[in-house]
Amino acid sequence: MKYLFTIIVLVICSTAYASEKADRVIISKSGSTLYLYRAQKLLVSYPVVFGRNPEGHKEREGDGRTPEGQYILDYKKSDSAFHKAIHISYPNKKDREKAKKLGVQPGGSIMIHGQKNGLGWTYFISRHFNWTNGCIALSNTNMDSLWESVEAGTVIEIRP
Fold first, then answer.
1. pTM for this structure?
2. What are the DSSP E strand ranges found in the chain?
3. In terms of Cα–Cα distance, which of 82, 129, 140, 145 is closest to 110?
4. Among 25, 32, 40, 121, whose Cα sits 20 to 30 Å from the Cα of 159?
């Protein structure tokens, strides 16, 4: 009976933790870390990698940079070419205006995603270098956790 009670308590606690949704995502490009917050309390952090040219704000399509600034996680994509994907609302109005001044396309389809489908086992290598086209990538296991922890509409801030 004692063990049954312990198991029930553990299940209830783990369910409560799993259902706690983040209200803010902060990415530190210099720290290669994604942080999930709820009411200014850090819930969890994950190591991440970025576009192949990570320094600086994304300015144009194909530059290999990950944007910087405040955006919204506007939808989830379960049928991605990668292990799940959450779309970031880049480009915003300011990004489009800057690209127009430069005479270039701002790019788009910036996501947080796991590893390429079928290649999740490569994470032990891919976690050591920036390889995306401007997206934010993490392990499939961490992507599963992130997927459950955020809803469409969550604010994301990407810092240098």
1. 0.85
2. 24-28, 33-38, 41-47, 69-77, 85-88, 111-113, 136-137, 154-159
3. 82
4. 121
